[in-house]
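Troubleshooting log. The previous structure file for this entry was overwritten by mistake, so regenerating from the original sequence record. Sequence copied from the archived sheet and checked twice against the printout by T.R.
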Amino acid sequence: MKLKNIIEEKRKQMEKAKKKETAKNVAVGTAIGTALGAAAGLLFAPKAGKETREEITTKSKEVAENVKVKVEEQLDTTKEQIDKVKTDVEKGWEDLKEKAKKDKEKAEKELDEAVDKAEDVADELKKGVKDLKDVAEETKKDVEKEIKK
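Regenerated output below.
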């Protein structure tokens, strides 16, 4: 049950991460759109061609760098979440294995105790049967003596 809860929690975290990623993608798209709009504005601005091209180049590099930074941040975040999920699942698995081991040991101990008790009862029954045979034999002898008299 605990493993199921861990997996469910991780699924929720992954969904949250996807939503975050989508939001970042929208932000990156907005930044790119803004940059393209700015570039278009520069192209139609009354400046010299060389100056306009330099501004476009500068803005393009800035946008590319911003996109690169955002992608790297998202990759780092995703890797961290994957590592956390992996660690949590491994811990849950180890906890589950440890519990199963303890339960197995407990069951083996209880089984050994039950076998010991059963052997003790069997020994007592054997002794009781032997005593009954002895009593029956003595009774038989006594009856035979009485019959001979």
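The helical segments are 2-44, 49-148. Archived copy saved in two places this time.
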